[in-house]
Amino acid sequence: MKAVKKFEISRNVWLRGDDNPAYRYRERDGKMCCLGIYLQACGLSAENLSGRHQPADVKDKILTGCERRKQDFSWLFKQPGNTHDGKGSKRVMDLVEANDSALTDGPSRESQVENLFAEEGIEVTFVD
């Protein structure tokens, strides 16, 4: 696995706007939330993402290896102001909220997701 600084979110694969708990990867239709798409772009397999709700659920798969990897992915797990014990960083929880809220329209959702990843130095492009 290697942290990427640029990735694409295909609107055809993107699982979003459903207030039910999202999955990083949903097997039945191959859809993924924004974090699942990001983690797959970094090299985590669909098998490892399947049925998982949070990056913390696959933390061992993400962080196994060199110290550099632990630094590159630390934003997923620890940040100042983290009040979401065991569920990931505040940034992750903000991404989950932006991704899953049924109250947010398409352009606003894309903008929120794009801005939240940008705060971590990651560029997102949405494609059809």
The helix content is 25-40%
- Quaternary state of this entry equals single chain
Percentage of residues in DSSP E strands: 5-15%
Total DSSP E strands: 2
Fold blueprint:
Elements: E1 6-10, H1 34-41, H2 46-49, H3 59-63, H4 67-72, H5 90-100, H6 106-118, E2 123-127
Helix pairs in contact: 5-6
Q: Which descriptors apply to this entry?
A:
6 helices, mainly alpha, two-stranded parallel ribbon, 128 residues
Describe this structure in words.
- There is one protein chain.
- The chain is mainly alpha-helical.
- The chain has one domain.
- The chain contains six helices and two strands; from the N terminus they run E-H-H-H-H-H-H-E.
- The chain has helices at residues 34-41, 46-49, 59-63, 67-72, 90-100, 106-118, and strands at residues 6-10, 123-127.
- The protein has a two-stranded parallel ribbon.
- Helix 5 packs antiparallel against helix 6 (106-118).
- It is globular, with a radius of gyration of 13 Å.
- The chain starts with 5 loop residues before the first strand and ends with a strand.
- The mean pLDDT is 83.
